[in-house]
Amino acid sequence: MKENIINDCITRWKTNDVNDLKIMRFSNVCEEYVSSLSLEMKDVFIELLKGFDYYSHGNVNERLIELHNKIIMNDNVNFDNSVFTILKSQRCTMNSSYEYLFEYKNLNQINKYSIVPDINDCIEKEYIQNIECIILIDDFCGSGNTFIDYLNKYKEYIKNKKIIYVVIHIMDKAYDIINEY
User: Which of 13, 140, 163, 164 is the most exposed place for a label (fewest CB within 10 A)?
Assistant: First the structure.
């Protein structure tokens, strides 16, 4: 049972990195965890795993490059007048979006002066008026609410600016809500 679960997940997650620590941990603890579950809970666990997506570091990097290339091909963005930033955590803590922002910068050779970890810095210094495009880097969008809250919070400052949302994984519900907005 363990081998099928693990192999199915690794195949679906499209990771070839056998040294990925999270995959190794999953492989090591899965059998013990599943064996501790009741038969009913095993079925629930396996069903939940079918809908769980994991992105290895390599997969995230591939996705960040792919999304950047889509911006280049489709959005006619002048990167000289653009900033790259994140959606802050609602818990006021650093989240993986910061890591993704810097990975994105390095992978796509973005000028360090285009990286703005906090858009408030641009607003306070009135630099925002020189910005044509705000590119938001995010790891995960579950409901779309954080993105919409961001747009509402800064609507006075970002009107007439192109907003591009670069997100590694977005839930269908969030996609629909954002598109309706």
Answer: 163
